[in-house]
């Protein structure tokens, strides 16, 4: 049961309808096979699970989603939905606060944060649809008409030919000026793979991502080798849980190489600690993990205060409105798995255009419609 603050008129989203009680909250999970086996420095997978959330009020349906375990649907249906049903959809800040309070004794990070992220995004999408405006307008934007993207994949399970072909496609077909590859499964082979990537992409910027697989010394050795190949971004060289180690890598890495992390930040406190530790040159935020629209825009404001650039992690169809409104936004990750899934299962998913994507200002909300019939064969 929500607290009385959830219905306080002063906490309603400006312009929200007074008669928009939430009628229903739904959550469903879908397991989509990858197009080939994938791996990074610390994980291997052959499928991706998508959890889709819908919130209904006053004839409109808000859409949100996250990439997490299917058990998030049970958490949403049995624990979190009761916080929202019958409450006014426009009381967005209060409802989000109530969701976080509801999981106090469960633990905020991980599964709970993913579930709340999907619900928060659906609430924002719902409110934008109730007001018949694109989501970016509710966020005070757009600050930019188009958002730069960088191609992301280059999994360690790929052979050199597949690696080169994928990275080259993003540069020469999609117009990306930067691409990212995975490293860390076998560090001894990574210098050769980085050389192959460089040969395939010409003068485009090259990023590498170790997914926390390396030690501080190992990461610095990689940085020294990779800088000669023009690598300008080193993501999670060590575990993001090791903020002191991240700071050591940042301090000693070549000046031309940005150290980036933040995809596993689940709360505003996680971002604050990372910034206070001076662990990154670029902060990453993932709205499917860090509290949805609310959490992502909090991260954006922290970057504004700390004078650091922000990069949106994965889920480009979900991030494009947020990225268009976020100050200091550098780019959105055009992640292979999520681009493929979103183009398959969401009408209105963005397409790369000269290395950019843009929010659809002709549609209310986030501009996406879930293709339920197409997704049914993947349902869990």
Features:
single chain, disordered N terminus, 8-stranded parallel beta barrel, 14 strands, alpha/beta, 13 helices, TIM Barrel, 23% strand
Low-confidence runs: 1-11
CATH class of the largest domain: Alpha Beta
SS elements, strand count: 14
Q: What's the name of the CATH homologous superfamily of the largest domain?
A: Enolase-like C-terminal domain
What structural class do helix, strand and pairing data support?
Answer: alpha/beta
Rg of Cα set = 20 Å
* Quaternary structure: single chain
Specify the biggest β-sheet: 8 strands, parallel, barrel
pLDDT averaged residue by residue: 95
Residue fraction in strands:
15-25%
Give structural notes.
The chain has an eight-stranded parallel barrel, surrounded by six helices. Strands 1-2-3 form a three-stranded antiparallel β-sheet. Strands 12-14 form a two-stranded antiparallel ribbon. The chain folds into two domains: 4-133, Enolase-like, N-terminal domain (Enolase-like, domain 1), CATH 3.30.390; 137-371, Enolase-like C-terminal domain (TIM Barrel), CATH 3.20.20.120. The chain has helices at 72-84, 92-102, 111-130, 135-138, 160-172, 190-201, 216-226, 243-252, 268-276, 292-306, 316-325, 336-345, 372-375; strands spanning 22-39, 44-57, 60-67, 147-153, 178-182, 205-209, 231-235, 258-261, 282-285, 310-312, 329-335, 346-347, 356-357, 369-370. With 380 residues, the protein is an alpha/beta fold. It is built from 13 helices and 14 strands. Helix 7 links the parallel strand 6 (205-209) and strand 7. Helices cover 37% and strands 23% of the residues.
């Amino acid at each position: 049961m929500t607290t009385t603050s959830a219905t306080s008129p002063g906490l309603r989203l400006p312009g929200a309808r007074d008669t928009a009680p939430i009628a229903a909250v739904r959550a469903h999970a879908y397991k989509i096979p990858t197009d080939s086996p994938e791996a990074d420095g610390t994980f291997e997978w052959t499928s991706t699970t998508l959890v889709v959330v819908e919130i209904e009020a006053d004839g409109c349906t808000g859409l949100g989603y996250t990439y997490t375990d299917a058990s998030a649907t049970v958490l949403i249906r049995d624990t979190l939905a009761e916080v929202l049903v019958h409450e006014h959809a426009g009381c967005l800040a209060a409802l989000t606060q109530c969701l976080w309070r509801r999981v106090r004794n469960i633990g905020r990070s991980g599964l709970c944060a993913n579930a709340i992220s999907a619900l928060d995004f659906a609430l924002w999408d719902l409110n934008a649809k109730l007001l018949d405006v694109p989501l970016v307008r509710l966020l005070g934007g757009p600050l930019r008409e188009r958002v730069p993207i960088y191609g992301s994949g280059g999994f360690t399970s790929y052979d050199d030919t597949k690696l080169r072909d994928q990275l080259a496609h993003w540069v020469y077909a999609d117009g990306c000026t930067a691409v990212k590859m995975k490293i860390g499964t076998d560090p001894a082979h990574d210098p050769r793979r980085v050389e192959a990537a460089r040969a395939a992409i010409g003068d485009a910027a090259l990023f590498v991502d170790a997914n926390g697989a390396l030690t501080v010394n190992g990461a610095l050795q990689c940085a020294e080798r990779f800088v000669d190949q023009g690598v300008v971004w080193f993501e999670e060289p060590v575990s993001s849980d090791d903020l002191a180690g991240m700071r050591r890598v940042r301090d000693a890495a070549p000046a031309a190489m940005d150290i980036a992390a933040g995809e596993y930040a689940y709360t505003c406190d996680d971002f604050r600690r990372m910034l206070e530790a001076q662990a990154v040159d670029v902060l990453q935020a993932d709205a499917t993990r860090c509290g949805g629209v609310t959490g992502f825009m909090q991260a954006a404001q922290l970057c504004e205060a700390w004078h650091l650039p922000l990069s949106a992690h994965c889920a480009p169809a979900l991030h494009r409105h947020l990225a268009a409104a976020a100050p200091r936004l550098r780019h959105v990750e055009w992640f292979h798995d999520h681009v493929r899934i979103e183009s398959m299962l969401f009408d209105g998913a963005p397409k790369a255009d000269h290395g950019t994507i843009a929010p659809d200002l002709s549609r209310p909300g986030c501009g996406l419609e879930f293709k339920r019939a197409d997704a049914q064969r993947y349902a869990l």
